[in-house]
Amino acid sequence: MPLDPQLLEILACPDTHHAPLRHDPAEQTLTCTECGRVFEIRDDIPVLLLDEARPGTGPSAGESA
After folding, report:
1. 10-46 CB burial, b ≥16 within 10 A, e <16
2. In the chain, how many domains are there?
3. CA proximity to 2, closest of 23, 21, 33
4. pLDDT tens, 15-42?
5. Tens digits of per-residue pLDDT, 6-20?
6. CATH number at residue 16
7. Which residues form a coiled coil (predicted)?
């Protein structure tokens, strides 16, 4: 069962910036548009836990301050 489009509209990264998430239905993931973290979708449930997120290749991933 695909994720509800209304749910996808309100989901945001759980980090302090709360950026929107980009859905990849083929990979069953949600990717933060700011930090690039990748959150898995397991059994049609988004797992939005920072401890379980994978580092991604988003806009700020890999940048050093």
Report:
1. ebbbeeeeebebebeeeeebbbbebbbbbbbbeeeeb
2. 1
3. 23
4. 999 999 999 999 999 999 999 999 999 9
5. 999 999 999 999 999
6. 2.20.25
7. none
Taking alpha carbons only, the member of 5, 49, 60, 3 closest to residue 39 is: 49
State both tokens at 45.
């449930």
Q: Tokens standing for 65?
A: 């301050």
Closest CA to 7 of 27, 38, 30, 40: 30
12 within some domain? yes
pLDDT of residue 59: 57
